[in-house]
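Homework help board

Subject: predicted structure for assignment chain

Our instructor gave us this sequence and asked us to write out the predicted structure in token form, then describe one feature. I got the tokens but I'm not sure how to describe them. Can anyone check?
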Amino acid sequence: MFDSWFTTSIEKIDFSMTKVISFISRKGGSGKTTNAINLATSLNKIGYSVLLVETDTNYTLISSRKLELFKRKEKEDQHFPILASEDHRIAEEIKALRTKKSFDIIIVDSAGKTTDQGIRELCLESDMVVITTSLTQNDLLVTYQTVKDLLPAKEINRQLKLCILPNRIHSHTRLKTVKEVLKNLEAEIIDTYVPQRKIYTSPSTITAEKKYLNVANQIIKQL
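My token output:
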């Protein structure tokens, strides 16, 4: 029941070229990592060929994947790959991966303290940058600065889309209210939000969360 519902509730797009979705923020703890893995598992479940790359040298997702594989007694090649990279080399690696066309979508979970140079190079190789933010004053200030820092990249990479993903939002909050708070940011606001629930903040690196499907759908629509 779960499989058929999940795969028939969203229309899979055939991309002629590998698409790159990068999660970027100037602040750690904004939800980049949890949304990157939730998006990766969802798109993989739908049928996309997905690669997830993390550039934070703590490599949280890679460690979590290894633990899950150990508990499940499964092998790594049974699931979509999660690879390690770093700020100074991710852009060149993406170029090489695009040439091979081995994946439909590459998702990059960038480091919270990524360098200015790293951000610029990653933006130039991305089709979409997703900036996650809550509605707290501190997060909004960081998000504003992040968007401001990324805007020059759009002058060079005309295909780049800057998108805001509202994250950790109270489930009773109306989407209209969320958009009103974020309206002054010079970026597209994804037409949904991620509620503040444990199922989204403690995700599996293998199993897709059914309730995240709407978020994944809205993100893909932006491509």
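Reply (TA_rk): Your tokens look well-formed. For the description, you could write something like this. The chain has nine helices and eight strands. That's the kind of observation they're looking for.
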